[in-house]
Amino acid sequence: MEEKGNDTLRKILDVAQEEFLEKGFSGASLRAIVKDAGVTTGAFYGYFKSKEDLFDSLVAEHANHIKEIYDRILAQFVKMPLEQQKSSMDDYAFTGLKEMFDYIWDHKIPFRLIFKSATGTRYENFLQEIAQKDMDSTEDFYNLLESQGTQVEHIDPLIEQIVITGTFSAFFTLILRDIPKAEAERGLSQMFRFYRGGWNSLMHFAD
Fold first, then answer.
1. Tell me, what's the pLDDT at 141?
2. What pTM value is reported for the model?
């Protein structure tokens, strides 16, 4: 009986995934999902409370994992003395990006759902939430540098938002393209060096 229940759940999730990818969350039909999965509406509600709950079950674990990677790498970074932070910032930043890269690469479909189909869900601002984490941590680092007597060039908040959001948008776009992994990894390395060069210049790490 449990195996049959698992098969039913898997069928609902598989059908829903295709429906959401094709039509987006707002355009997806719960009635069509139930019909194509070959289950009754009552059976569906035995697993999920709503269409939102169904979408959440497909992406929540993966969205949370990416945020956890960012928070864990940042927590390790901020524990270090300032001079060590300055000398190892690029290594920590790339380590975090590469870990996120590998996870997203292995779970492309949930992230395609987040970036292509999440309008109308709590995930539609996922990119902005990640970018905000980076803006907050950048501001904290600026403040730490200045408290220790290092002068930094403050970037206009609007420009900072555009640059950081654009960086993460490019990052996710690169991974979700249908290209060989080795090509995407080369692109990640080049993109990282391009953006880090600009930030290091503003923070006067490249005088």
1. 87
2. 0.89
Q: Which residue has the tokens 């803006």?
A: 135
Residue 63 one-letter amino acid: A
Low-confidence ranges of the chain (pLDDT < 50): 1-2, 206-207
69, 96 Cβ separation under 8 angstroms: yes
Inter-residue contact 51 to 31 (CB < 8 Å): no
By CB atoms closer than 10 A (0-12, 13-18, 19+), residue 18 is middle
Mean confidence (pLDDT) of the chain: 91
As given in the structure block, the two tokens for residue 128 are 């902005």
Q: What is the pLDDT of residue 4?
A: 52
User: In terms of DSSP H, where are the helices of the chain?
Assistant: 2-27, 30-37, 41-45, 51-78, 82-106, 108-117, 126-147, 157-176, 181-202
**Would you state the structure tokens that stand for residue 91, as one six-digit string?**
């290594």
Residue 198: count of CB within 10 angstroms of its CB: 13
Q: How many CB atoms lie within 10 A of CB 85?
A: 16
Burial call 89-117: b when 16+ CB within 10 Å, e when fewer: bbebbbebbebbbebbeeeeebbbbbbeb
Tokens read off for 81: 């003395």
User: Which of 133, 126, 101 lies closest to 25 in space, CA to CA?
Assistant: 126
